[in-house]
Amino acid sequence: MTRFSSGFHSQFIRPSLLSRRQRRILSFYLFVSPWLIGFIALQVIPLVLAILTSLTNYDGLNFENLKFIGLENYARALRDPDVKFSFGRTIAWLFANLPTWMILSFALALILNQNIKGRGLFRTLYYLPSIVPGAAAIISWKIILDKNNGLLNGLISLWRPGTAIGWLSDYALAGMTAIAVWTGLGAGMVIFLAGLQGIPDELVEAAKIDGAKGWQIFRYITLPLMTPVIFFQLIMGLIGSFSQLNLPLLLVNVGLTGSGAVPSREIYLYMIHAYYQIFTSRRYGYGTALLWILFVAVIILTAIIFWSSRYWVYSEQPDEGEKQ
Amino acid sequence: MTFLDLQTRGLIQKRMNTFLGYFILILVTILISIPIVALLLGSLKQDPDLVAYPIRILPSRWMWSNYIQVFQMTPFLKVAARTFFLAFTCSTIVTFISGLVGFAFARYRVPGSAPLFSIIIGMLIVPGIVTLIPQFLVYARLKLTGTYWPWYLGALMGSPYFIFLFRQFFLTFPRELEEAAEVDGCGPFRIFTQIFLPNAKPVIAVVMFFAFLGIWGDYLTPLIYLNDNNTLLGVKMATGFKNPQGITLTTISLAANVYYVLPMVIVFAIAQRYILKGVITSGLKG
User: Fold this and answer.
1) Are A128 and A241 in contact (CB under 8 A)?
2) A251 lies in the same domain as A151
3) Do B38 and B78 sit in the same domain of this protein?
4) Is some CB atom of chain A closer than 8 A to the CB atom of B242?
5) Pick from B103, B184, B280: CB nearest A2
6) A195 domain residue, yes or no
7) Residues A17 and A141 in one domain
8) Are residues A43 and A186 located together in one domain of the fold?
9) Which residues of A are less than 8 Å from B25 in CB distance?
């Protein structure tokens, strides 16, 4: 197999002209070039153009009267009552979704971390919703939660006839949280579980010998050792909740009987507002300004959590060298 | 005496805990399956069953024919074939490129490699939506909306998440492997394709799975880039299929949704051990 390979690399790189080190540098940059070029062309440049766009009145067509309007779009965002409203809804969504998801997936991981038969099976079952495509997940949930024809209201109606609770309209925040937790529970649990299994048994055994009870072991051993995982999940959950667009958009666009549903103000999240500005109203300049405001808000919040982490996240200094 | 008492008490306590644990686990299993069962039952109903009052949990007639009608009355197969082709080609490309880049980051420590890797790590926490809309504005300007170019160009650059997975896996490979090959005069690209890739089957499986699912299950990207003639399954599933008179075929669309989800579930069931390992690697060590 390797007999034919000798001449391959010398096509570009002549061993005689370049030192081994230079050849290695060249190979490295050759290999990462697809990503590096893509990163610059498909991510950095569009983001820079998006900053520039946010300073103009661009609507996709108006090249003849394209104007540089400075920070006007940003000033307008601060005056826009819908921005304020949708930001409030996003915060409400964050507080509904993030703690529910984290506590439930952590609790499940704690149960599965015990010496339980069939652990692998439960782990697989709980992860399953994560691989159900969004559209199919929303359709399935609409069968249950639809206001007029949903199974849940139908069941309640057997007992209290005529029940029509708007699980996905008046209480859409609750409905959407249920769907999001259903989708993300397994993924969160798998990561918490891996963290729990990294806690050395000797620590727990030693504490037991010292007479520690279940709750004390959790409070003084498990919880502190899990703070790095909690920290990681918190950051990812925060960013995910702030940039949530797919779920509310699907909830608006997918109707059980195909007609599409009425958009609920309950889940008029910030990203939904930005999405409508860009794709429905074609206010590209204003819409990209909204995106940048969100981006900065998320960075500030993430930075705050990172800063706070030194007060509550356990870090194991001496073992640093063992990590990959 | 007291010692024994403590022991029996401990035993009873342990039994109770296990029992309670199983109780919760089974309860959660039931709760999690409700939407899936609702979809399956719905797909076997007739449309009037869905709006019946009082409700019908079970179909009035079990419409197994819905699963055949999907192919006769809707363009499901055509859209599925189109989506499969795009998802398969793009996930193959993205897997190969991510492997190559991951290999470079695992095996080369040259000036600039460390900062570039921190960019990869940084991009792991940037959600796709942040770049999606700016990218859309550029593609729209280049008149590439309505085509599949955004998918192919995106695949050609690899993905930070997959690059990271490959790098972590390749770090565990022993150096002797490639040193022996180098002595034989094997170039770095050949080392990658003939030594590293063939030994990375578990990671390739995980990356292929998630890359495929990312396109197959996507709703937002086809929604903003494509039109009704060339759109993908995600959008079609969300809107549902209509008959020539414009009336939505609800339960037949639900059966189509079952066909939509099933392949992913089967592949996941087969490869779940590797897939969950991949989730953990990218999640914990990120």
Assistant:
1) no
2) yes
3) no
4) yes
5) B184
6) yes
7) no
8) no
9) 108, 111-112, 116, 122
The answer to whether residues A204 and A152 belong to one domain is yes
H/E stretch holding B96: helix B76-107
Q: Provide the domain count of chain A.
A: 2
pTM over 0.80: yes
ipTM score of complex: 0.89
Instruction: Name the closest residue on chain B to residue A61, using Cα atoms.
Output: B141
Judged by CB atoms closer than 8 Å, whether chains meet at B286 and A46 is answered as no
Q: Do A184 and A307 share a structural domain?
A: yes
In this predicted structure, the answer to whether residue A118 has a pLDDT above a threshold of 90 is no
Residues of A in contact with B133 (CB under 8 A): 50, 274-275, 278, 287-288, 291
Note whether residue A73 is domain-resident. Answer: no
Name the 3-class secondary structure at B48: helix
Chain A residues whose CB is inside 8 A of the B238 CB are 135, 138-139, 250, 253-254
Which structural domain range is residue A28 located in? 13-48
Average pLDDT rounded to a whole number, residues A121-144: 93
Q: From B108, B132, B121, select the one nearest B189 (Cα to Cα).
A: B108
How distant is the Cα of A79 from the closest Cα of chain B, in angstroms?
23
Confidence of residue A2 (pLDDT cuts 50, 70, 90): very low
User: Which residues of chain A does B257 touch, with a Cβ-Cβ cutoff of 8 Å?
Assistant: 135-136, 139-140
- The answer to whether A265 and A289 are in contact (CB under 8 A) is no
CB B127 within 8 A of CB A239: yes
Residues A175 and A29 in one domain: no
Residue range A43-64, pLDDT digits in tens = 999 999 999 999 998 887 777 7
Which residues 59-88 of B are in CB contact (within 8 Å) with A?
none
Among A49, A50, A59, A54, CA closest to A69: A54
pLDDT the model gives residue A322:
42
Inside any domain, residue A75 = no
Q: In angstroms, what is the C-alpha Rg of chain B?
A: 25
Co-location of B126 and B30 in the same domain: no
Cβ neighbours of A295 in B, within 8 Å: 130
- Asked if A140's CB is within 8 angstroms of B36's CB, the reply is yes
Give the domain range for residue B23.
2-43
Indicate whether B94 and B203 sit together in one domain.
yes
B144: phi then psi, degrees, rounded to nearest 5: -105, 5
The predicted-structure confidence for A143-170, as pLDDT tens digits, reads as follows 999 888 888 988 998 888 888 888 888 8
